[in-house]
Specification:
Blueprint lengths: L1 H36 L3 H30 L4 H24 L3 H20 L6
Amino acid sequence: MFFFEVSFHDIMGGKMRAIIAILLVVIVGFLAYTYFTSLSEEEQKVKSLEKEFNLAVGDFLRAIRTMSDTGLDTTSDVDGAVVKIKKVKKELSALKISLKESSAQERAGKLDAKIKEFERKNDIEEY
């Protein structure tokens, strides 16, 4: 009977150590990921505008694809997407003035270039 208790303890002790070690590695990994991928408030604002831009681009491309595939008039969908893109561009211009962090300024600059390139490629005029 004493032999059974020692074996049971040895088996469970080894498993528990392994489980605790795995949990510690997972927790440390999660904390490191959270620390290195967290964005500042300014970066979050720019990222929000990036998301809005990407959604508007998706709407634009969907409308163009529908127009070319089916021949349906989707002009209002295209115009709606262009209005969204212009809105993002305007908000980005206002936000760029107030940005203090270099990482947020860099991200905003990339988004601005992306918007200008999209407008150029798709012949979207300023109005």
